[in-house]
Structure formats: structure tokens, C-alpha cells
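As a warm-up, study this chain.
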Amino acid sequence: MASTGKRKKDISVFLDGNSLTIDQLMSLEVEDSHVDLTPEAWKRVTDGRGVIDNLISSGKKVYGINTGFGSFSNVGISTEKLRELQENLIRSHAAGVGELLSPARTRRLLTLRINVLAKGRSGISPDTLRQLVDACNKWCLSAVPVKGTVGASGDLAPLAHLALGLMGEGKMWNPQTRTWADAKDVLAAHGLRPLVLGAKEGLALINGTQFIVTFGAEALHRAANVAVVADVAAALSLEALKGTVVAFDEAIHRERAHSGQQFVAKRLRSLLHTADNPSEIAVSHKDCGVVQDSYTLRCVPQVHGICLDTIEWTKQIVSTEMNSATDNPMVFAEDKKVISGGNFHGEYPAKAMDYLAIGVHEYANISERRIERLVNTTLNGTSLPPFLVSEGGLNSGFMIAHCTAAALVSEDKALCHPASVDSISTSAAKEDHVSMGGWAARKAVEVVSNVETVLAIELLAACQAIEFMRPLKSTPVLESVHALVREVAAPWDTDRFMAPDINAVVDLVRSGKIAQLVNTHMRISPEPLDEMDDFCGGVKVQLGDAETS
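Now compare it with the structure written out below.
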């Protein structure tokens, strides 16, 4: 199985094609990190290549080995032109457009491709695969545009660009100068040879869904953190709005046994007032006579719960996909045969990414409604000043911060339109159904990014509201979260430049510090949360130095 060796700033991930995790993949953003194959994987690669070499010697006609591609699959190619065939494939398919992937994302893309090749089903030679591993370890990364894949016969365009740089053509990231430069020069400067492709090796490098999974893994990694922060923000808002914890009683949620709902309710109980985790704010209004709160407070477990379950389901799809053979044709060394199929089709991760975007967006949708309750005195009563600022009129407070949240929520609603409901026939109708998974995954990351910002605004607003309740204090854990926010954003006494505060709390959210604090609290709380791993299904937040399972 894939394993991780780790020192404080040195991570090694050993790939076997079967057990790479999202945590391990994300840990490779650390500069002093390395990948290699397990000995068993190297043997599978060698055996798979042996099947290809024997087929070439036999003269048998096999798709992608000695034929053209796509609608040219019936055109035979002579042995002396097999290298030219593979190199032409890469050059012609490197037709992507748009901005380039960041080096970190490109490295994840290359790692995912190496992991799939480690299964031994692609027929790549050990020497060529070793060159990929060496380039990955030296951060010599091809320039890969983000647009161009329809997610069907693999992510052909981006993976072709990934291969092109390794052939010494196009541009490549130079880790020494931290700039893009001519690939041949970058390779030479780092003691690397350009790839010389043998039979089937070009095809082996570009058939697969790794571009979709690159973005999918990132979206999931960040969404797992969002799931914690969303519950914390909701708890702080409930405190600030003097809500009740009664709706989170275990008896209610036991009767609707969705795992996510039950987990969120339990997390809220651990954050909010109990005898063991007292809140002076909660005690101050225990006899106020309010029976039940608005849905944005009362129904947090029901809404956040399905978001959490969506993240968990999507994680299962992406984890399976990142360890799946997605090449065509596939090599089965144990049976000494090559079989053409369709594992390259991206419908699975495409649908998962669309579902993830819709699910995670709901955290922002309900958060924005809580933000309005905090700033709007017609909704929160008279206990809080309009827009959470003294001397309203002279000061506007959180008026436009709420508008920013509303704008992002509206943007997400457009981004949540499923990409995978579309299909446009390509390659002369040979590839007549496609997934559009590349766009599904890219916009899922964008949705998560917007959600992180909306939650940061809610955290700012809720913490500001609590300032008006002093000297009363909330629960110890929520006071600790409040203190984290105050480390990066001071109370709002009079109007000042708002954007830096929002950006600072967004960075705090993304750092994972809030989630880390809350999870540490829950491990020692009277009602420990042991049904699921730290966030959801074992996905952890990368905190400074990478965390790995």
C-alpha cells in the first residue's frame, strides 16, 4: 500500500497505484517532499511493459500501440514510425488554453499520473516512469493550461501538456528561478533527460481523469475544513443572536438517523452551553420565553448535515478514482493480453464534483442568512446595533460586508449549475459522449473558495456581535475561537478599511487553526465525537507543515 515517511519538513510518499490518499497527495505541496514507487509496483510496471514489447515483436495490430487514435484507430502504423506516432500524439493533443496550473497543482497532477502508471496496466517502460518520478521530485513541472479537457477519453489536453514539457518541448517551471522557462533548458539544468517515447507510451501518459481528480482532491481537502468552520460560525452566531440549544437535543436527531445530521448536532452540543461547557451569554437569556429560533439557527444540523454527507460520499468517489486504472487499452500481464475499454471516461468524478459544489455551497447559502440576522435589527430585535457598529449613520459597520457575502452566494448559485449535464460529441463522433468533468472540478474549487470567504465574514460579524455582550462570555471553546479571530482582526469600533479584515480571517479559516482548535476540544469534551474521523471520513486540513494519515 502507499505509505508516507515524514519528518518535520521532509515527506516521502511511496506509490503503489492502489492506496494513495487525499491527505498524502496534498502533503506533497511541501517543497522537501518526494515520491517513488513501491518495489511491487516497479515489478508490475516491468511486467506490463514486457507484454507491449512482445506484441510489437509479434506484429499483431492493437489499438494505440501500432494504430492511429480516435477516428484513426483503424489506420495501421509501421514499426519504424511508432516513436513518431507517440510524439505526434502528445504534440497534437497539447491544445489547451487559458491560465496555467500553479506548480503545486501541476505536481499533484503529475503525482496522480505516476500513481496510475504504478498499477502496471498502461504498458509504460520503467525507464520512462523513472524519468517522471525524477522530474516530480525536482519540481521540474510542465506548463499545463487549465482549459481544454472534455473529460471523456481522459483529460487529453492537460495531460498532453504535462507530457510535452517532459519531452523537452514547451515551457516548464524552473524551481531555482521560480519562473517558467523553456522545458529543454530546465531539464538540462536539473540533470534530467527529455522523454523519448516508445510504443504506447504517449497514450499511456494522457489517458486518464487525473486533471479532474487534481482539482477534486483539493476541493475535498478544503471542503472538509469548511465543514468544521461552518459549524463553528453557526454556533457563534447562535450565541450572538441569543438562540437556544434545545433544537440540538440528541433525542430529536436520533429519530432522523442521517449520519451527517447526527454528527453536526453532536458537534454543536459540544460547542454550545452545557453544565460542563458553560456560557454566561446563554445563561443570561435562559428565561427569555423564546420557544424556537429561525430555521437558519434551528435547522443547522439538518442543513449542514447533508453538506457533510455530500463531502463524505464525494470523498469515496475521488479516493477510488485516484487509485483506478484509467488507461486505454489496458495491459494485463498476468494474462498476457491487452484489452480496449472505456475507463478513461470522467463521468464518475464529474458527477461527484457537481454534487460537491451543490452540497458545499449550502454552507454559504445559510451562512449569508445568518449574517443578515446579525446586522438587521428587524430580524435580531434590539439587542444588537444596526450593522454591528456604534454611532450608526456616521459608521456603516458591516453593511457592505454583508453585500459581499450576498454577491458570493449569488455567484456560487451560477457555478453550481452542473457541468456534467452537458455533452458535446467530439473526435468525429467516435467520442460521442463526454463528461465535462474538468470544468466541474475547477468550479467546485471556486465554490469552496467563495464559501470560505462567506464563512469568514460570518465569523467576523458574530465575533463583533459578541463584543456588544461583554462582559458576558460564551463557552470556553467559542471564546478561544473568538480570540483567534481577534489575533488577526480587531473589534470594529469605528469604520475602517474592511477588506484586510475579511482577507485576514479568510486566511485564518484556510490555515486550519480553527478546525484544529475545535477538534482538540471535542476529543476532551464530555461528549467526544468518535463516530467519524477528525473532519469527515479521515480528510484532514493541511496545517503549515503537512499533515498526513
